[in-house]
Amino acid sequence: MEKICVAVRVRPAVTVSEDTTVNGTYWKVEENRISLHKSNGTPIPGISYAFDHVFDESCTNSRVYELLTKDLIHAAVEGFNGTVFAYGQTSSGKTFTMNGAQNDRGIIDRAVKDVFNKIHKIYDREFLIRVSYMEIYNEEINDLFAEENQKLPIHESLERGVFVSGLKEEIVSDAEQVLKLIQGGEVIRHFGETSMNARSSRSHTIFRMVIESKGKDANSSDYSSSDAIRVSVLNLVDLAGSERITKTGAGGVRLKEGNYINKSLMVLGNVINKLSDEAKQRGHIPYRDSKLTRILQPSLGGNAKTSIICTVAPEKLHVEETKGTLLFASRAKRITNCAQVNEILSDAALLKRQKLEIEELRKKLKGSRAEVLEQEILKLRNDMLKYELEREKLEMELEEERKSHKERDQCIKEQQMKTDNLNTRVNSSDGDKSSSQEQNDGKQSLEEFSGNNIVFQDVFGTPTFKAAPNAFVGKRSNYSRVRDFSPLPNTYNNVADEDTWLKMNRGFVADLDSIQMTPAREFQSFPSSDVTLGYSTENYKVEVQNLKRQLDLVLEEKNELEQKHLEQLRLNDHLMGEIAELKHEVVLVREIPQRLCESMASCRDIYKDVLLTLQSFVPDGDSSIGKFLAATSEIGLSLFSNLEKVFLYGNGRSQIFQCE
């Protein structure tokens, strides 16, 4: 674990020193500390910051690179991930620090040359270097090596981590080739002019070098010098500066660019704030809120060596922005990264590593503590056997538990089927009881018909599914099955003669063959009359009691519904009253602007009368008092007219709302 290296660089003052010192404050650099002082040299309490490095106005890019970046570049060649980026307000010197000038080359130029110089001094490894150059303009990623690659997406995988899909990578062999590619990318990068900077960066740029290396000696016994491949990523970032619209005077496209720049830098500040807190208090870290922080996620609190250069402006005009930058740097200084060499091992390399570890363990066993180590090994083996037995036991118990669960489920299903069968039988028995009751009634009707020669009643009509008031008796269909049990006496045949038909159906003549007959039903024999009468009486009593209970329940529900209806009516009346009161208040509020306009008109008239009265008392020779009264009159009249316009505008809006 190591902390991020943070440095502050103060650019030279653009204006004369009187703007920064006379009747004001200035920033003073003392070794690795920067503090705000008054014009008389007295430090202001609470505004003092200490960092790893603090560079004053006279510092060059060469010194910044030697003290801050050189070790990180060498570590990248050795297999560590590295990131360097400049942060600060607009026109504070970030692009100059990263890209430099002709007489003072920047960090990117020096880092590229230093990488190749370092590689040429390493003879036992082979290197492959790939470079890419991108910009983040208005939260869209553009490829600076291929102008046609615009709006590239960000993806993440286990093998590559966070990467930009579709970004062009160039394989390079020397520093001059890389610098030419960078110059070509700078041509299509977005720059603009503001009131603070003639050539202001309008996008964030990330120059990335992927350094791969592999050992040359394939016969060596060391796994790291043969099949292990080291892959490191070096990011050199030039951030666009935060800016205030009141100072830059931006508008239109520049205003939109500034909004996107400030948003991404704000997200970067939020990420730094979260990472600077303790691990237990961090919570969610919003890497995905900005594409800049998403790409730099491994460099912020991850597997990388990171250096931050915060550039500030010394002028009095930019004191607040400088304080914000220094506060950002102070929080970033508390972030810790866990950088390690990135190696990709093949199967052969893994086998060699394991062999070396076995050899080291054997050497330890041959030492003075061989017996102790053997005992520990035996103990570990016994523990492993014990855990294995416990695991098998638990598996057996789990299997038995599963079987018992299956048996329980089967029993539950069987019980459910039995319950369904019982319900079916109960329903069928109820149907049989009702059919027996019908048979009893039919028997009584037959007796009445045979004894008294009364006309055959409609009770013994042919069973049918149609709900007809009077059923007809006719010849059975040839396709219907003969009943096993019939409610009719044996004296009746399957055919009713014409006289009986006319009597039963009151003279109606119908085609007996056209009548659709119902399917055959199975009936039971008639029970005894005594049993039937007793059973029907008891059923009637039970049904009457049930009907009474249902009637009571219905009456109770009716009473509850009536109560709820009354409560709803009372609530509606209350709401209607409140709505009427609100409407009355709305009418009163809408009348306020008109009343205010009338009051302002009367006040204006009174004001005119007072001024006329005062002017009448002014002597003719006193011109100064007359001018003063005239000016006062104009100011007051303009004030009253503006107030009347405001009230009229408010009245007009209220009328519009009323119309809507």
Automatic annotation (TrEMBL):
Residues 3-335 form the Kinesin motor domain. InterPro entries: Kinesin-like_fam, Kinesin_motor_CS, Kinesin_motor_dom, Kinesin_motor_dom_sf, P-loop_NTPase. ATP binds at residues 88-95. Keywords: ATP-binding, Coiled coil, Microtubule, Motor protein, Nucleotide-binding. The keyword Cytoplasm does not apply. Residues 418-429 have a biased composition (Polar residues). It comes from the Eukaryota. Residues 537-564 form a coiled coil. Residues 400-417, 430-446 have a biased composition (Basic and acidic residues). Residues 400-447 are annotated as: Disordered. Belongs to the TRAFAC class myosin-kinesin ATPase superfamily. Kinesin family. This is Kinesin-like protein. It comes from Salix suchowensis.
